[in-house]
Fold this protein.
Amino acid sequence: MKNILPILTVLLVIVAVWYAAAIKMNAPWTYAQAERAGTEVTFSEVVRDTLAQERPVLPAPHQVAQELWDTTVMKKVTSKRSLVFHGWVTLSATMLGFAIGTTAGILLAIGITHNRAMELGVMPWAIASQTIPILAIAPMIIVVLNSMGISGLIPKSIIAAYLSFFPVAVGMVKGLRAPDAMQLDLMRTYSASDAQTFWKLRLPSSMPYLFASLKVGVAASLVGTIVAELPSGATRGLGARLLSGSYYGQTIQIWSALFAAALLAASLVIIVGVIEKITLRRMGMAV
Amino acid sequence: MKKPVIDASGVNLTFQTKDAPVHALKDVNLQIDKGDFVSFIGPSGCGKTTLLRCIAALETPTGGSLTVNGLSPDEARKARSYGYVFQAAGLYPWRTIEKNIKLPLEIMGYPKAEMDERVKRVLDLVDLSGFGKKFPWQLSGGMQQRASIARALAFDADILLMDEPFGALDEIVRDKLNEELLKLWDRTGKTICFVTHSIPEAVYLSTKIVVMSPRPGRITDVIESPLPRERPLEIRDTPEFIEIAHRVREGLREGHNA
Ligand SMILES: Nc1ncnc2c1ncn2[C@@H]1O[C@H](COP(=O)(O)OP(=O)(O)O)[C@@H](O)[C@H]1O
Ligand SMILES: [Mg+2]
C-alpha cells in the first residue's frame, strides 16, 4: 500500500498537466468561434468550452474516459463501434503472432547454441531483419500476401511474429548459454548426452531469460499487429480505429484507441509476469 | 600383485594459451591403490585441479600414460568409475535436494523405485535425511556441500574425486565434515582423491599425501601416513600427526624455493 501514494501523485500531476494542455491547445478554436459570432468570452467560458469540444486538438481526460466507457461497456461487443470488438481483433492476431514468433525464436536459439555454423549463418540475417523499419516492411508484406489471397488474421500475425521472434531468440540464446563451466563439467562427468544436458540443465537455466524476453516480445507483437492494421484500408482492429479516427479528425476516438492499446499491452505484460512468477516459484527459483 | 586403481606414469600437460604455453603438469608418476585416501596439497597453480580433471577425463594429458581402473580415463568415465565433487556445491537451484541427487541417476537411466531407494540411502549417509524436499537455497553452505557429496555417491562409482570441497566453509563446519568424510570413507571403502591447501586437513584425512609445487606443476613428495584408519579429531594433537604435518610443510617449502 505504501507505493500507492507516489503512483497516485504522479497520476494526478499527469492529469493536471493534461487538462492545462487541453485548455491551451483547444483555446484558439474557441476564440475563433467567438470572434466569428462577434461575442466576448470570459475565461471560465473558455475553460468550459475547451474541455467539451467535439473535435478538440487534444481531448480532455474525461472525454477520453467517457468515450472509452461508451465504446466498451455501453456497446454490444459485436458492434463495429465497440472497442472490445476491435481490441479482440487485434488481440487474436497478436496472440497468434506471438506464439509463432516465440516458437521460431526458441527454435532459432536452440539451433544457434548447438550449431556453430548456424550461429555464423543465421544470426547476421536475424540481426539484419531487425534493422528494416517495420513501417516500411509491413505494407509490403500485407500487399504481397493479399495478392496471394491471404488476408485478415494471418498477415498481421506474421508481422507480429516478425517483431517478437528476435527478442525471444536473443534472450533464449543468452539463457541457454547461462550454465557455467562447472555445471557443464558436472554433466560431462556423467557422460550426459547433448539432449540430456539440454533438458536437464540448459533449458531450466534459461527460464528467467526466456520470461524477460517474452515480456518484450509480447509488447512488440502488439505493436506489430497495430502497425499491420494501419495500411490496406483495414476496418477492424485498434490500428484501423486509430487510422479512421485520424481520417475524420476524431481525436477522441484516436485517443481512446491509443489508451485501449496501452491497456492491452500493459495487461499482456502483466499476464506474462504472473506466469513467470508462478513458473519460477514452482521451479524453486523465486522466493 | 594388486593393480593400482589410478596409475599415472610420466603424465605431462601443457596448456596452449594466447601468450605462452603453461606447463601445468610435468612428469607426474603416481600409483593409487584401492581404498586409499589420497590428498593433493600445494600452493595454488601447482596443477592439483588439472591432475584431478585428467583422472576424470575432463582434460587430456599431452604426454605419458594414465589409467583408471585399468581403463583409459574416458572409458573409466563411461563405466561410471568416479563421482566428482567440485569446490562449489553446484546444486541446481530449480531442483530439490532429492531431485539434485537423482540427477546422475536419471541420466544413467536407473529405474524409479531404485532411484528413491538410493536417494534415501545417500541422504542418510551424509546425515541429511529429512532435507530431501528442500530447495538448495534453504540449506546452509555446509549442508549444500554434503548434498553434493551425496549426489556423487548416489551411483556406485568406487572412486570419489573431490576438488577443495570444503575450501569455502568455515573451520568448525570443515572439521565436522572432515570427520564425517572419514567415517563415510571407512563405511564405503571407496578410493578418494582429495584436493586441499590445508595441511591439517590433508594429514588428518589421508593415507597418502601428495605434495605438489608449481611452475611447472609437479609432485615433490609422496608421504605414506602411519596414522591408524580410526582417527578422532584429537589425533591432531599427537606427536605422529605433528611430525607428518612438519614433513608436508618442509616439502611445500622446498618446492617453493626450488
Ligand atoms: N584451461 C586452462 N587453460 C590454460 N591454462 C590453464 C587452464 N587450466 C589451468 N591452467 C593453468 O594451469 C596451472 C595449474 O592450474 P590448476 O590445476 O587449476 O592449479 P591448482 O588447482 O593447483 O590451483 C595454472 O597455472 C593455471 O593457470
Ligand atoms: Mg584448483
